[in-house]
Structure to design on (395 residues):
């Protein structure tokens, strides 16, 4: 049940990428949803690609790391989960890119849990901050 | 990324010379196939399990056992059917389901299989990869061959680990009550996992090539090395123990 309501962005985006174009990658999950017409899928995919600044004709496996990461986030954005866990999203991304992705995922009111080692980054995201120090969890 | 199969700890097996450890491993792997009594095989398995518990620890024992459990179950379920003759233990009407000889053979096979698995995994869990490489070279195994062996044992767990993560990530991506469920869905869902695994494997080629290059593969001039096995001071004693245990236990338990 948990995996139906939680989207987990793995550290490595390549774990989820397997189709030849961004368009196919984004529409893959939508095609398996009952009651969605081709037009609706195309509209959702195009909007999502615009939002995450992705080109539909690009080949995911040859895109840069930040773009692959954006594609991974876009896939989850389309799945419209109520809660997301972002595992070290800021790795190899600029603060701006990472924060933009978080804002996009929050657009539909989803809760976000961010796991990071970067204390500066986490202070910029807002919300509650918990830290693990010497095996103990405390609120900052 | 899984970089090796070594599990850091401080047991006696960690202080055992890697060269003697390989010698010990080869002898014990041969020992389990010698004509010894079932009780002897059982004792050897207990000794191996005790060594595993007191060195890498209970978690290692449990995880190794869990990984081979499906094969053991398969073996236990089907192997008794190979032995049809002997004293019947379980019969259904006139059909003999299990014979005493069949049960004993399964037990012997299972003990051998578990012993071999623990012996091999113990070597890699208690010895760092560079030391296995040095020990293999000490046995005059060419550098390239030793390197391929150590890389294979590094790379296989990495791929296995990657495959499990990919499976999980695709399950997360597709899960949902609203999604279409078909009978062939399970088979079809393997395609994304296999494709991503292939992408991951292909992406790791440059890293693997770099790793080989850094270790001197393909260079005409031999690379120098800082690390050696001179820190192991009881090489002779370790070899003696490695030889004595299999020989004495064979004399005690021979059938």
């Amino acid at each position: 049940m948990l995996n139906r309501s939680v989207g987990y962005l793995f550290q490595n985006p390549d774990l989820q990428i397997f189709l030849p174009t961004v368009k196919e990658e984004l529409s893959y999950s939508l095609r398996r949803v009952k009651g969605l017409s081709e037009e609706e899928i195309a509209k959702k995919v195009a909007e999502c690609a615009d939002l995450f600044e992705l080109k539909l004709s690009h080949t995911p496996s040859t895109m840069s790391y930040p773009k692959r990461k954006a594609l991974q986030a876009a896939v989850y954005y389309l799945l419209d989960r109520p809660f997301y866990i972002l595992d070290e999203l800021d790795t190899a991304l600029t603060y701006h890119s990472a924060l933009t992705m978080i804002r996009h995922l929050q657009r539909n009111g989803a809760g976000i849990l961010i796991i990071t080692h970067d204390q500066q980054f986490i202070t910029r995201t807002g919300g509650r901050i918990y830290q693990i120090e010497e095996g103990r969890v405390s609120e900052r | 990324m899984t970089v090796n199969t070594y599990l850091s700890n401080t047991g006696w097996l960690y202080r055992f010379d890697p060269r003697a450890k390989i010698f010990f491993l080869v002898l014990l792997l041969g020992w389990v196939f010698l004509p010894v009594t079932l009780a002897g095989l059982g004792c050897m398995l207990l000794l191996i399990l005790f060594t595993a518990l007191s060195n890498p620890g209970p978690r290692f024992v449990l995880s190794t056992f869990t990984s081979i459990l499906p094969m053991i179950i398969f073996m236990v379920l089907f192997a008794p059917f190979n032995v049809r003759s002997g004293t019947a233990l379980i019969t259904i009407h006139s059909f003999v389901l299990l014979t005493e000889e069949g049960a004993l053979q399964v037990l012997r096979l299972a003990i051998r299989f578990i012993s071999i698995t623990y012996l091999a995994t113990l070597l890699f869990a208690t010895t760092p990869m560079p030391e296995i490489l040095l020990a293999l070279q000490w046995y005059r195994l060419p550098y390239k061959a030793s390197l391929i062996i150590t890389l294979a044992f590094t790379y296989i767990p990495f791929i296995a680990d990657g495959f499990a993560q990919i499976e999980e990530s695709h399950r997360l991506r597709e899960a949902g009550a609203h999604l279409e469920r078909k009978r062939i869905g399970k088979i079809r869902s393997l395609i994304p996992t296999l494709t991503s695994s292939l992408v991951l494997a292909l992406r790791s080629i440059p890293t693997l090539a770099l790793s080989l290059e850094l270790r001197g593969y393909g260079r005409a001039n031999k690379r120098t090395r800082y690390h050696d096995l001179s820190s192991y001071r009881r090489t002779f004693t370790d070899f003696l123990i490695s030889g004595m245990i299999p020989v004495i236990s064979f004399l005690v338990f021979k059938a």
About this structure: Residues 2-139 of chain A form a domain with the Rossmann fold fold (CATH 3.40.50.300). The mean pLDDT of chain A is 88. The first helix of chain A runs from residue 2 to 5.
